[in-house]
Amino acid sequence: MSPPLRVVTTEVTPPADLLSRLPAPDGAAMVRDGDGVIGWGEAARLPVGDAPGRFAAAGTALAELVAASDVDDPVGARGSGLVAFVAATFDPTSAATSTLVTDFSMYASGRSVVWRRMT
To answer: Would you say residue 1 lies in a domain?
Structure first.
């Protein structure tokens, strides 16, 4: 289990181009038609294995991390608060391990635009 995180969400002015806010080439992004989520840095990394129950394990790991963390989310919009990216194997015979990662800093856009810092 990762140590608890402190997450603060603040509404900010929407960037003209969400991907242009990604400062590092090793960041993560899920963007479609200009809306989505980008993140960089790493606040927590939770390996969830490669067994058939890896998706349930990822859900449990995230629920435990959220329950243990201090989340200040006055925005309350979809995509705000504690958010994680998951790299999951879909082939049960894959040698790779599925991993859940919460990024240190993020932007999300859609109905609201938010800035999140996790420590």
So the answer is: no
